[in-house]
Write a structure and sequence with these properties.
The chain is an alpha+beta fold and 73 residues long. It has 2 helices and 4 strands; from the N terminus they run H-E-H-E-E-E. The protein has helices at 2-11, 28-43, and strands at residues 19-25, 45-47, 56-62, 65-72. The chain starts with a helix and ends with a strand.
């Protein structure tokens, strides 16, 4: 959650802007069914599997797992 909010800020999005979010890697396929709706609600995001025309992209590691996060307004 924090990483997504930091990326929103870095991209210059307003707090109320709706975004499209793509997450891949790590345990995402396992945790998506449990956490996707919560993440989408907290970040005002529509989650997509593959987002190729992003405004900002980050690779990060969380608890030893590598993730790729992509955002678009």
């Amino acid at each position: 959650m924090r990483a997504i909010q930091d990326m929103r800020k870095e991209a210059g999005y307003d707090v109320s802007d709706r975004i499209v979010l793509s997450v891949s890697g790590g345990e995402w396929p396992v945790v998506r069914p449990v956490f996707a709706d919560f993440i989408a609600g907290e970040t005002l995001a529509m989650i997509r599997e593959d987002l190729t025309d992003a405004d900002i992209t980050r690779a990060m590691e969380v608890e030893g797992q590598s993730y790729h996060i992509t955002l678009k307004r």
